[in-house]
Specification:
Elements (H helix, E strand, L loop, with lengths): L16 E2 L15 H12 L4 H11 L4 E7 L7 H4 L3 E8 L2 H7 L7 E4 L12 E7 L5 H7 E12 L5 H7 L19 E15 L2 H10 L2 H4 L2 H8 L4 E14 L2 H6 L2
Parallel strand pairs: 1-4, 2-3, 2-5, 3-4, 5-6
Antiparallel strand pairs: 6-8, 7-8
Helix pairs in contact: 1-7
Amino acid sequence: MLCPAHHRFDRAREGYLNLLPVQNKNSLDPGDDADMVAARRAFLEAGYYTTFRDTLKAMIEPLNAGSLLDSGCGEGWYTQTFREIASEVVALDISKHAVKRAARRGADFTWLVASSNDIPLFANTMDVMVAIFSPVQVAEAARVLNEYGALVIAAPGEKHLWELREALYPEVRAHEPEKWLEGLSSAFTLQHETALQFSFTLPDNDAVKNLLMMTPHYWRASRERRTQVEQLTSLTLQADFRILVFRKQPPNARAATP
């Protein structure tokens, strides 16, 4: 594959393109490693977040997306359902391990190893951009979305996985979902917001380990606390999500935003 600047990119045998330039990597192997990706896949395939995925899909469907970008797609468990509500789906993640697994879900998606801070798409080409627990670079999101395009953000609510965090830390603070929204008002207008809470039980030790491994808490918690959690044979948790739908502001409105 040859880009307009005459850079050549090869498609991996799994079907994805690696469009992450070496100079844009923050480490030799950025993003989730292979163990985290495998743990997340096992957890998600077990269906614990199916209610959340179905709610998210139902909120995206009325947006009538001809083209949809899943930014921070991970191993593609959410992405695979977006093909049912969008004619074209492009999915990217900075983790090569994640995209390599995601690409196995189907050749009718465009899978990219790339950064959400430098999205390798032309301007005004996407109808909808989705970011699930993934950072959003506001200027880039506004650039790739069509006029009045929609940005859908899923973020953890205040009590998300509270019981896991109680087991890992001596003091637990509620998540601050508003921190995900900083700067969005410069280019987007919030149109709709939904809160979703439900409880679920991890029935065995493998499930507990998978959840722990797929979260940043695995690296943040002390080894002693982490070891205690890894020995649990079951765990009941609260899931707490916020799903927000934004619309891209027209250029004249953005110019007027203080």
